[in-house]
Amino acid sequence: MSNEIIVYSTQVCPYCVAAKNLLKTKNLRFTEVLVDKNPEQRAIMIEKSGRTSVPQIFINGTHVGGFDDLSARVRNNTLQELLV
């Protein structure tokens, strides 16, 4: 079984780039959903996360949060809890 990781992002967001790079360093595949040109996807992201900022990261259905939240999970060794 593989992990389902979704990163809602925009094309010009430095935190989005940082989050995607962090996932890549952990050899984790993800699906990127660009919300800057897709209002429907932005609305879905806001409904799912309750936040309007990007990135918004979901791992196996759990809302992780943004880049700071993801990097904190890496530092605290709690990212693995979300992975299958």
Automatic annotation (TrEMBL):
Keywords: Cytoplasm, Disulfide bond, Electron transport, Redox-active center, Transport. Pfam families: Glutaredoxin (PF00462). Gene3D superfamilies: Glutaredoxin (3.40.30.10). One of its GO terms (biological process) is cell redox homeostasis. GO terms for cellular component: cytoplasm. It comes from the Bacteria. GO terms for molecular function: glutathione disulfide oxidoreductase activity. Residues 5-64 form the Glutaredoxin domain. Has a glutathione-disulfide oxidoreductase activity in the presence of NADPH and glutathione reductase. Reduces low molecular weight disulfides and proteins. NCBIfam families: GRX_bact. This is Glutaredoxin. It comes from Marinicella pacifica.
